[in-house]
Design brief:
The complex is a heterotrimer of chains A (171), B (663) and C (103). Chain A is built from 6 helices and no strands. With 171 residues, chain A is mainly alpha-helical. In chain A, helix 1 (2-21) packs antiparallel against helix 2 (25-46) and helix 2 packs antiparallel against helix 3 (49-73). The mean pLDDT of chain A is 87. Chain B is mainly alpha-helical. Chain B is built from 26 helices and 2 strands. A two-stranded antiparallel ribbon of chain B has the order 1-2. Chain C has one domain: Helix Hairpins, CATH 1.10.287. Helices cover 77% and strands 0% of the residues of chain C. Chain C has helices spanning 3-24, 28-52, 59-90. The longest helix of chain C is centred in the last third of the chain and has 32 residues, at 59-90. The model of chain C has no long low-confidence stretch (mean pLDDT 90). Classes of the chains: A mainly alpha (171), B mainly alpha (663), C mainly alpha (103).
Chain lengths: 171, 663, 103
């Protein structure tokens, strides 16, 4: 049981580290997609199939695409796809910050008595999820819907930018 | 109760009404002013005669009419009128002599512009004087007393454009005021002791038995009785008004007023007011006579002051050159004699003398220096005759004239006084001097040759002035008959007591002595001034040639004015200077210091405000701004920096939570 | 180490990597992707706990994750639109140059 978990963990974290340290932007994006897939695999191992599907669909599917588009839209020269490294001190301080946070979190994990019930994964059917979404969490669902709509519209507005107005269109 | 005294108030009220009307009369309403004044006083005269008749019906009674004026706290101020022979006689005298003087003024003041004002003031004076006479309450008396003082101020300073007249009026007012202060204190004391200021009040008045007895008990330190103290204070007021020593200094200066004023004030009325007051409250004065161990009796003081005044006034009169001043000092002297009968007689002959001298002055166009007059006997016969009558009455020419009998009575009483013979000697000396100076005056004015153009052109005064003179001279003679040995008869009529008749020449030795003294005075006066009449105005007085220093000393009124100026005048000026220094330096300095203190406070305030508050606030604001600037430098605008800060903060917080949780 | 702890370690490490990357890289897109990693780590945590302590309503953990993914997607879209807008302004997406809001 644990072996699978450890494997998934290694893959995911390894991909993430690699993604963050690559100079090539496109390589980074692809490695990120791999990392997200790893997270999806973890969801599957944990028994949350629906969540795994959602993860793969949204992240590996949609978000990767959007990021790729963004990368390709925001480059001027070949050099932009391989941005230079930032100053060394900055990298070291960032790594140190990361290590510090990891240490704190690991210490918290280690220090907390976590009793585990070694039972099987809870059986949650899609029907159940649907029913809960439409029932107790209907309001949240609606709000999220609105949020998505607004975010979409906002993104469109932001990305479209200000076009110079045509003189003949002026009132 | 309906007493004959009920309507007594009309006697002073009529002239008061005339004075009020006179005040409203314009300057051209001369006849109206004079008419109302004379009519009012004539009315008062008639009422006074009626009152006298009433009084004589029951001489021993004191008929009074009291009423309440107002309440003060627990007490009630009561006023009232009194009717008894003394009052009635005084009323008649005042109104009669006053009336004659009013008529005389018609002629004397004819050329004066302020004719109407003069009569208004005259009426006021008459009203006030009659008020003094008829009042039963010492408060009402005091009110009228002060009104008399006011009216005399107005009259003496009638020609106020003359600085000497204004000064004389002021001097008269202030000097009598000093006396009035004593009177007021006496009244206050009396009220405090007895709770009443009424003279007769059905047994409760201050002159009646029980109250008087209480006052006569010795209460003060040294064995004095309350009545002694009160009497002496009241005598201060009397001395002021009557010109007794030492408050006599105003009388000679008061000659600055018109002659009718001098006649009215200094002959008949105001000066008599003082003597009248003493006579009025005589029971109070004599209350302490019975006290054997008392160190001082009130009447002793009165007699002493009177004696000194009599002698002093006569001595000074000898050396005067002003016609009216001689008469003024003569008044001072005569008032020293201080007896009621003498007073009544004096009123007539002194008024007569003043009016006659007024006639002379009027005729000689206001020439008053006797050295420049003379030879008027032939030109002004009526005036000369009446003046002579008055002079003889004053000098005490025996038997025919009133002055003789009144002086006789006084000398007789003085000889009978066992306390001291000094008043007698003073009185006798006064007799000589009086005769002497009156003879001098008569000779200088009327005999010899005219010594100035004014005297040379004098002519007799109009009838309106001479008729009152004649009337007064008749009075001067007629009153003498009252003083004859028929006096006891009159006295018994007046007091209702039986007094045994005196033989014709009782007290013969004294009477003979006084006749001899009068003769000596007359003779020496004639010898010095009549036989060898003065030739020129600038010629020295025979007495001056004899003893120049004494003459000039007497001529300056024994230098009383200089003495007072050197002492009280200096004291007053010193007081004023002290008050000025106090005011400017001390109080002014204090105020200025307070002001400085205020300035200092303001200055400190402003400094604190600027340096403290403003600077403090500015510094704080500066700190805030600095902090803001410092903080804004943190805003690098770099997202990474913010994120880094977030991460570090998260780490720190988590550490805190872990470590805190562990413990 | 029980499975839950392992899961939590896993998510912590992923979170730290995401944070370090976001702090280190200068590129805007990579910073956003670092954010994504951190959010993913949070979702991992949710599922880990759901697996071992489901609670009374077992579907709640999954639903929470669903919602988190949805919101994250929206946020990523908006963030990338911002990056594009930034690119329009300064012709590159170096965050070190995007400091016009400095104080």
């Amino acid at each position: 049981m644990n072996a699978v978990l450890i494997l998934i963990a290694l893959v995911t974290v390894g991909a993430a580290i690699l993604a963050m340290s690559r100079r090539n932007l496109l390589h980074s994006v692809l490695l990120f997609a791999g990392s997200w897939a790893g997270v999806g695999a973890f969801f599957l191992w944990a028994g949350a199939e629906f969540a795994a599907f959602a993860q793969v669909l949204v992240y590996v599917g949609a978000i990767s695409m959007v990021v790729l588009f963004a990368v390709l839209l925001t480059r001027r020269s070949r050099e932009d796809l391989a941005p230079g490294p930032v100053s060394r001190s900055r990298a070291i301080s960032a790594v140190l910050a990361g290590i510090a946070v990891a240490a704190v979190l690991l210490a918290a994990v280690a220090g907390t008595p976590l009793a585990v019930s070694a039972g099987p994964a809870p059986a949650v059917s899609v029907r159940q999820i649907g029913g809960e979404l439409m029932g107790p969490h209907a309001a949240a669902l609606l709000v999220v819907g609105v949020l998505l709509t607004v975010a979409l519209l906002g993104a469109v507005v932001l990305a479209a930018g200000d076009r110079p107005e045509n003189p003949e269109d002026a009132p | 109760m309906d007493s004959p005294a009920d309507h007594l108030w009309l006697i002073p009220a009529l002239p008061l009404l005339a004075a009020g009307l006179g005040a409203l009369t314009p300057r051209r309403g001369r006849r109206f002013a004079a008419g109302t004044a004379i009519a009012a006083l004539a009315g008062s005269l008639l009422l006074s005669i009626a009152a006298l008749h009433e009084a004589l019906a029951d001489p021993a009674a004191h008929l009074y009419h009291n009423f309440s004026w107002f309440d003060i706290g627990s007490g009630v101020m009561r006023l009232g009128w009194l009717l008894d022979p003394l009052n009635a006689l005084m009323c008649v005298m005042v109104s009669l002599v006053g009336l004659l003087i009013f008529i005389f003024s018609l002629g004397y003041m004819d050329s004066d512009e302020n004719f109407a004002r003069f009569f208004c003031f005259l009426s006021l004076f008459a009203a006030a004087m009659l008020g003094v006479v008829v009042s039963n309450s010492l408060l009402l008396l005091f009110i009228s007393w002060e009104l008399v003082g006011l009216a005399s101020y107005l009259l003496i300073g009638f020609w106020f454009q003359k600085p000497s007249a204004a000064a004389a009026a002021k001097k008269a007012f202030i000097t009598t005021r000093i006396g009035d202060l004593g009177l007021l204190l006496g009244l206050v004391w009396l009220y405090n002791s007895t709770g009443s200021l009424l003279l007769y009040d059905g047994g409760g008045g201050v002159l009646e038995g029980s109250v008087l007895g209480a006052l006569a008990a010795p209460v003060l330190a040294g064995g004095f009785a309350a009545s002694t103290g009160i009497s002496l204070l009241v005598f201060c007021g009397a001395a002021g008004k009557s010109g007794q020593f030492p408050l006599h200094v105003w009388l000679p200066d008061a000659m600055e007023g018109p002659t009718p004023v001098s006649a009215l004030i200094h002959a008949a009325t105001m000066v008599a007011a003082g003597v009248f007051l003493v006579a009025r409250v005589f029971p109070l004065f004599s209350a302490d006579q019975a006290l054997a161990g008392a160190p001082l009796h009130a009447l002793t003081v009165v007699a002493g002051v009177g004696a000194v005044t009599a002698l002093m006034g006569a001595a000074i009169a000898v050396a005067q050159h002003d016609l009216k001043r001689v008469l003024a000092y003569s008044t001072v002297s005569q008032l020293g004699y201080a007896a009621i009968f003498h007073l009544l007689a004096h009123a007539f002959f002194k008024a007569l003398l003043f009016l006659a001298s007024g006639s002379v002055i009027h005729a000689a166009h206001h020439e008053q220096d006797i050295r420049r007059l003379g030879g008027l006997r032939g030109r002004m016969r009526a005036t000369f005759a009446t003046f002579a009558v008055g002079m003889m009455a004053l000098a005490g020419v025996p038997f025919v004239f009133s002055g003789f009998w009144s002086k006789e009575a006084i000398l007789h009483a003085a000889s009978a006084w066992e306390v001291s013979p000094l008043p007698l000697y003073a009185g006798l000396a006064g007799v000589v001097l009086t005769a002497f100076y009156m003879t001098r005056l008569l000779c200088e004015v009327f005999l010899g040759a005219p010594r100035s153009p004014a005297a040379a052109h004098a002519h007799e005064s109009p009838k309106v002035m001479t008729v009152p003179l004649i009337a007064l001279s008749i009075g001067a003679v007629a009153l003498g008959f009252f003083g004859t040995p028929a006096w006891p008869w009159l006295q018994s009529r007046l007091t209702g007591a039986e007094i045994p008749g005196r033989p014709l020449l009782e007290g013969g030795g004294l009477m003979a002595l006084s006749i001899v003294l009068v003769a000596i005075g007359l003779g020496s006066g004639w010898a010095l001034y009549g036989r060898r009449a003065r030739v020129a105005a600038a010629a020295p007085d025979p007495l001056a040639a004899a003893s120049p220093r004494l003459f000039s000393f007497l001529g300056a009124g024994m230098r009383f004015d200089a003495l007072y100026a050197a002492t009280f005048g200096r004291l007053n000026r010193f007081g004023a200077a002290l008050a000025d220094v106090l005011d400017r330096r001390v109080w002014g300095g204090a105020v200025a210091t307070l002001g400085r203190f205020g300035e200092l406070t303001g200055f400190v305030n402003s400094v604190v405000d600027r340096l403290g508050l403003n600077a403090g606030f500015d510094a704080v604001s500066g700190r805030f701004r600095g902090a803001g600037r410092a903080y804004s430098r943190r805003q690098t605008g770099e997202a990474h920096g913010y994120l880094r800060a977030l991460a570090i903060a998260f780490v720190v917080l988590a550490l805190l939570a872990l470590i805190g949780g562990r413990r | 180490m029980n499975p839950l702890q392992l899961c939590l370690v896993f998510s912590s490490l992923l979170f730290a990597v995401g944070l370090a990357g976001a702090l280190a890289r200068n590129n805007g897109i990579l910073v956003l992707l670092g954010l994504e990693l951190m959010l993913n780590a949070a979702n991992l945590n949710f599922i880990a706990f759901w697996r071992f302590h489901p609670g009374a309503a077992p579907a709640t953990g999954v639903i929470f994750v669903i919602f988190a993914i949805a919101v994250t997607a929206a946020e990523t879209a908006v963030g990338l639109a911002l990056v594009i807008a930034l690119y329009r302004h300064q012709q590159n997406i170096r965050l070190s140059e995007a400091n016009r809001l400095k104080g």
